[in-house]
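Worked Example 4.2. Read the sequence first, then its structure tokens.
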Amino acid sequence: MHCAALLIMRLGSQRKVCVARIGAAHGVRGEVKLWSFTEDPAAVASYGPLETQDGTQRFEIEALRPAKGHFVARIVGVDDREAAEKLRNLELFIPRMRLPKIEDADTFYHADLIGLGAVTLDGAQIGTVHALHNFGAGDIIEIVPVGSGEPMMLPFNEITVPKIDLAAKQIVVVLPAEIE
């Protein structure tokens, strides 16, 4: 299965991957709600300093504990509710190269798929992988078509995407009309 190891929110030109998002303040001592986008959600604390997409702010997670549907995090230097509130909705990134190597040949980081060519079973170029999304019902691959037209949103599974070839920098896509 093409189970993605990481949900990617945005991939910048500096190859950064969004690994978490800070939510509202939690309590009065500077803790924040934190949503992790890593395969092992608690691993977000072990990736080293996290930063904003533009790299102007860096954060270290001092402590992390599970809560209902998210984590509660203590960030180094954030000591009160007011400071925590200023971080609300901030997305946290790391350089792609800092992510662990994947040993399973059928598992990929979403970041590694962005920009790959999308071809049909017979090799016809149909577009480029623009993004991967998960709105709660499974992964969706977004492909920007060659030329013009609306982006295609397709299920990201073995039926619709039977082959991923990172070396050739392309994925094979079976379009809905071709699925029996």
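Now turn to a second chain, presented in exactly the same format:
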Amino acid sequence: MRVLGVDCGSEYTGYGVVEGDGERLLCLASGAIRLAPREALERRLLRVREELSAQIAALRPEVVAIEDVFYSVNAKSALKLGHVRGVAMMTAAEHALGVVAYAPLAIKSAVVGYGRAEKSQVQQMVARLLQLDAPPQPADAADALAIAICHIHTAATLLRQAAALR
């Protein structure tokens, strides 16, 4: 299974493509799309779409995994995040890819084993699971890889459960 993980953000949107079978994991690409705060929102959103489309075209993931909606105290920040999240979902749909969403606690639990793990712990575990020489930078790229890993682990678990029920 090949998964594009996307960590939506209004300043940096992380992405990471991971291939795995539930046991072995391979990082194919990761990075972050830097969005200039002074640029018009519609231009920033277009940039997210173009960058994610390029990753999808180059690496051919089977599914896109994103972080589920979380509630923010700052309504303006939540709205900007929602715009980016919508563009990521739309981009996946343009490429006929399904989208799955995971709660932040589920992502951290799947990768670190603890739902309230710190960003640095997520970066360290992502590096270990993917056998990288160093933790992915920036943290947004590590978060995107963590989202992809979460989906691969979840899908593998669901397959094992379905097989056990037969």
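Notes for the reader: Strands lie at 2-7, 12-20, 25-34, 63-67, 98-102. The chain has one domain: 2-165.
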